[in-house]
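Box 3.1 — From sequence to structure: REP element-mobilizing transposase RayT
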Amino acid sequence: MSDLFLLLMKFEPDHIYHVFNQGNNKQQLFHTRDDYKKFISFIRDYILPYADIVSWCLLPNHFHIMLVAKFDSGEFVKSGNLRFDPLTNGVRKLISGYSHYFNDKYNRSGALFRPKTKAKDLSDERLRFKEEDYLLNCFYYILQNPLRHGLVKDLAEWEFSAFRFYAGLREHDFCSKEIVRLVCEYDEKRFPELVMGRMPDYLLDDY
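Predicted structure (token representation):
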């Protein structure tokens, strides 16, 4: 992964971000359950030390992670002559680590992901609208993805997202219900109803 890639990402402590990428040329990233589990293990190793995860979903050819950056602003990681915040470095390791695993397993070479992993700062007030809260819509949109892509007819059928956790169908997850209550006003009783609300299409341009 190039240093130019890293320079395109910069996280600020306590800001909320939507991080997402897809397979290069939309190629498939996960072929088996073990592939999904490997990517999840890399999230635990490389992202969780520097962020609280609010929402996440892995799809066959892309992924979404909504998180709150929590590293100290004085921390940095040096790579050659460049310095990066630890969360940017964690995303770099997530992408490069999984790419190495995938290429080795499937006897392939070359780029697995698109060159730029996007990190949209949801703390930016310019993303707030009078009637639509971008941050809250993003939380639900990420969880809706398996339905939007026709992978399941019921979101509870999709294992590789935070949906089951927030719906009370899974006990443990990356996420914390205490944090999501603060960030997204999460209400477990209303969650099944609210998660089915459709995010306005004009807010989806960069997803």
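Summary of the box: The domain at 3-197 is CATH 3.30.70.1290 (Alpha-Beta Plaits).
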